[in-house]
Design brief:
Two copies of one chain form a homodimer. By secondary structure, the first copy, chain A, is of the alpha/beta class. The first copy, chain A, has ten helices and 20 strands.
Chain lengths: 390, 390
C-alpha cells in the first residue's frame, strides 16, 4: 500500500511537472537526527518509517517546502515562525534534497552538503538494515588522498582522490592492484567517498578478509571538449580518436594518457592489465562500458552499476575482450528494473546470462528495494570489490 | 573615506544588533564570478572595489538580504522574481556570508561551502594583490590525506587531515619535521586546507625553495568534555591534568597522547622536539600558547595567529621554554590591532619586543589591511613556514 502511494505520487509529478503532497496524521513519532547532519544540528530527522522531517525558522515566509525524490511537501508554520513538515517514507540509504522558500531553492542549513545534480546541496541518510557494511568502525583505516596533477590532454591542473588501503604505508615494498571508479552524471570526484562511503566499505571488507587490498582512483569524468577542438564537426570525430566524439571517449583519453600513467608513477601499483579494474555508476558505468570494450589490454575487470549492460554483440565487436577480461559485473537497484527506463540497450539480466553462456565470468546483482541512488551503488561496490583481483 | 564609511556601518550594527545598509549608485560594473563559486555558477560576483554582488531567484519572497561581515544588505527584485544586490567593498581575501530569505538564514546556492561560525556555509574570495602565493600552479604538489584513527582519550574515532610534501612518496627513506596547525573557534579540521589553502601555500613555498618540506597535521581542536567526566566540578580540575579544566588542556591531552604518537607511528616523521612545531589561529593560537608553554620538551617552534601573545611573565612561569623553544611567532591583521579587542593579555607587539630583549627568537608580523579573517592567517602561515626547521 505504501508503495502504491509512492508510485502514484511520482506519476502525478511526472505528468504535471511541479507537484506537492500532504502527509497523513499517522506519522510515527520516533524521529532522530540524520547521520548526514552537520555536527550538533537537530534537523533534518528521520523516523522508523523512513520519513524525513525538516525544520526551518523563516518567520516572514509565505510558503516553505521540502523537495525530495522529485516530490515537494508543504511545511506548516507555528506561532514562533518555525516551519516543520515530513515527507512520505523514503527508500533506505542516501538521498539528495533541498528546501524551497518562497520560490527560492536552497540547501537545508542543517545538513551536510554533497555534490550531485550539478550542485552542492543537502543530503540525508535513511538508516538501512544493512548499514553495517559502510559503518565507521575501529578497524585499520586506509587514507583518502587529494591528489593534484597536471593533465596534458586538458592542458590544466586536475584533482582526483586516491584511496590507499590500511597497510599501504606499513610494508613499503608491497605493490597493489588499482580500481578506477567513476561517479554519475552531475556528480564529481568527491561522490564515491562522501555519498558512496567507498573508503569505509573497503576498510570493513579488508578487515573481514573479504576483499584483497587495492588502490581506488576517483577522478572527475564530467567531460567538456577543450575550446580548441570545438570547431571540428562531431561527424568528423571517429570514436576513440582525437578530437573525440563525446563524453565517453573524451574522458577515455584523459584516463589513458594522463590519469593511469600519473597513478603508476606516484603510487606503488601493479601496473599490468591483470591488476587493473574499472567501474562506474550511471554515466560512469556507460563510460566504463565504452572504455573497457575499446581497451581489453588495459583493464581485466569491469563493473557497470545502474549504467546499462554488455551484450554478446558488443564483445563480438571488441577484439580481445572476451579472452582477456576476467570479470563483467552488471548491477541495478530493484526499482530501476521494475520501472525500467529506455536506453539500457536490451534486458541487462538476459544480456549478462548470454555472456555467461558465451563463457565469460559475468555477474548480475540486484540491490533490494532501491532505485537509481547511492544505496544501490554502495551495495554494488561491496559486491564488486569482493570479486576483484582474486 | 571608504574606510570611514565601513567603520561607521559596523558601529551602527554593534549598537543596534541587526542593521541594513544601502549601497550608492556608483558601483563599478566590472563584476566577475568569485573563485569560490560552484563550478559553472555565475553568482556570487566580485568587482574591482571588492563589492560582493549576489543573485537569487525567489519570486514569492518579500525580502532577501546579503549578510556579510556583520552587515546585512537589502536586495531588490526584478520583474522576473530575481533578487540582486551588492555589499560595500570588502577586505581582500576570504569571507563567510549567508543569505536571508524572509527571515530564513541559508547558504547561497551559488557558492562553495566552508565550515565556520559552527556551520557549513557560503564563502567568497575577494581577489588579493598578493594572491599568487596561494594560487594553484603547475608545480609539484603535496597530498592532503584524510586520516581516520581511534582516540583513547576521547574513546571514539576521530579524523584529521595530513599534508605530505611533494617528494614524500619519491624518497621513501627521508624523514620530515611536523607542524601541528590548528583552526579557530567554530571551525574544524577542514579549515586550513579549504579556506586557508595551506597545501597550496606550502607547495608554492617549497617549489621556490623558501621553505623546507615538512608534514602538516590539521586536527579538530574543538573540544567537549567526555560525558563520563562532566560530574567533576571545574574547580577540582587542575590545569594540565585529567579531567581537564577547559578546551585548551582538553585538546592538549588528545594532542599529546593520541595525535602525536599516531602521526609518528604512521608517517616518516623526525620525532624529536627540534623537529616539531605548533601553530594556530584565534582559539587555535590560544591553545598553542597554553600547550607549548606547558610542553617545551615537545615543541621547538610556536606560532599564534590572531590569538594573543606571550609575555616575559609567561615564560618565567614555564620552566625550559626560554631555553628550548627556537621560535615564537606572533601575528595579527592590521585592523584587529587598530580596533583592538580586550583579552589579548597586554600589547602583543610590546610583549614580543620584550621576548626579544630577553634573548628569545621572537617574530611579530602584521597582515596589511586585513581583520580577524583568513587572509590574515594565510599570510601568517606563509611567513611562519619560512622560519621553521632551519
Amino acid at each position: 500500500m505504501k508503495k502504491f502511494i509512492r508510485i502514484s505520487l511520482l506519476a502525478t509529478c511526472m505528468t504535471g511537472g511541479l507537484c506537492s503532497a500532504q502527509i497523513p496524521a499517522s506519522v510515527i513519532e520516533d524521529f532522530k537526527p540524520s547521520s548526514a547532519n552537520q555536527e550538533g544540528k537537530e534537523y533534518p530527522q528521520v523516523n522508523s518509517e523512513g520519513r524525513v522531517r525538516v525544520q526551518l525558522s523563516a518567520p516572514e515566509a509565505k510558503m516553505v517546502q521540502l523537495d525530495i525524490g522529485a516530490v515537494k511537501y508543504d511545511l506548516t508554520k507555528d506561532t514562533s515562525g518555525i516551519w516543520i513538515g515530513e515527507s512520505a517514507p523514503q527508500d533506505e540509504g542516501f538521498h539528495y534534497y533541498q528546501l524551497n522558500i518562497d520560490g527560492a531553492s536552497v540547501p537545508d542549513p542543517g545538513s551536510l552538503y554533497y555534490y550531485g545534480a550539478s550542485r552542492w546541496g543537502s543530503g540525508i541518510e535513511i538508516p538501512a538494515k544493512d548499514q553495517d557494511f559502510y559503518a565507521l568502525k575501529n578497524v585499520p583505516h586506509g587514507q583518502v588522498r587529494e591528489h593534484i596533477y597536471y593533465s596534458k590532454t586538458n592542458t590544466k591542473m586536475r584533482r582526483c582522490f586516491v584511496y590507499t588501503p590500511p597497510d599501504y604505508d606499513k610494508d613499503i615494498q608491497k605493490r597493489y592492484p588499482v580500481l578506477y571508479l567513476q561517479h554519475g552524471g552531475g556528480e564529481n570526484e568527491t561522490g564515491w567517498t562522501a555519498q558512496g562511503k567507498a573508503g569505509l566499505i573497503m576498510d570493513n571488507l579488508i578487515a573481514e578478509g573479504k576483499a584483497v587490498p587495492f588502490i581506488i582512483v576517483m577522478d572527475n569524468g564530467s567531460w567538456r571538449m577543450p575550446e580548441r577542438d570545438r570547431t571540428v564537426p562531431q561527424s568528423e570525430r571517429p570514436a576513440g580518436q582525437w578530437p573525440p566524439k563525446g563524453w565517453a571517449d573524451g574522458f577515455m583519453k584523459t584516463l589513458l594518457d594522463d590519469i593511469i600513467p600519473m597513478i603508476d608513477a606516484n603510487y606503488r601499483t601493479l601496473d599490468d592489465q591483470q591488476n587493473r579494474a574499472m567501474a562506474g555508476l550511471s554515466m560512469g558505468g556507460m563510460q566504463t562500458r565504452i572504455i573497457t570494450l575499446a581497451n581489453p589490454n588495459v583493464f581485466a575487470y569491469m563493473g557497470m552499476f545502474s549504467g546499462g549492460s554488455i551484450s554478446t554483440e558488443d564483445i563480438e565487436n571488441a577484439p580481445g575482450f572476451k579472452e582477456k577480461v576476467k570479470l563483467v559485473f552488471i548491477s541495478f537497484g530493484s526499482s530501476e528494473l521494475e520501472n525500467r527506463r529506455p536506453g539500457f540497450g536490451g534486458d541487462p539480466k538476459e544480456n549478462t546470462e548470454k555472456l555467461k553462456e558465451a563463457g565469460m565470468n559475468a555477474h548480475f546483482y540486484v540491490s533490494p528495494k532501491t532505485a537509481h541512488e547511492w544505496q544501490t551503488w554502495r551495495r554494488s561496490l561491496y559486491q564488486y570489490a569482493q570479486l576483484l583481483f582474486k
